[in-house]
Amino acid sequence: RQATWEDNNAFADLGERHSQCNAVKCLYPGGREEAEEEGPWELLLCSSCAAEGTHRRCSGLENSTRRWECDSCAGLGTGMSQSLWCLWAGDCAQAGLGRA
């Protein structure tokens, strides 16, 4: 007999892969929930938790970047997404990271 907590598919979404860009400002013309297979619009998932994602361009990452960590896993303000975007945009003081 099946466990009662399995009766209503309560855990069905655990098998689904995260599929949206969580950048503060998503730049992809197709929207947060769309991505391409490779290039600047490929969706990278956090290499630690896989619970957040970003398009490469939305976080200022190079096409050669294979790994990315969200701010929650890397520590707020130290995640590769935040620090690289900050350096690229020249906005480190506003992000609280000081000048590059």
Q: If you had to describe this structure to a student in words, what would you say it looks like?
A:
The protein is α+β, with helices and mostly antiparallel strands and 100 residues long. It has a domain of 63 residues: Herpes Virus-1 (2-Layer Sandwich), CATH 3.30.40. The chain contains 3 helices and 2 strands. The longest helix has 10 residues. The protein is elongated and about 50 Å long. It starts with 42 loop residues before the first strand and ends in a 5-residue tail after the last helix. The C terminus is likely disordered. This is PHF7 protein. It comes from Loxia curvirostra (Red crossbill). InterPro entries: PHD-type_Zinc_Finger, PHD_PHF7/G2E3-like, Znf_FYVE_PHD, Znf_RING/FYVE/PHD. Pfam families: PHD_G2E3 (PF26054).
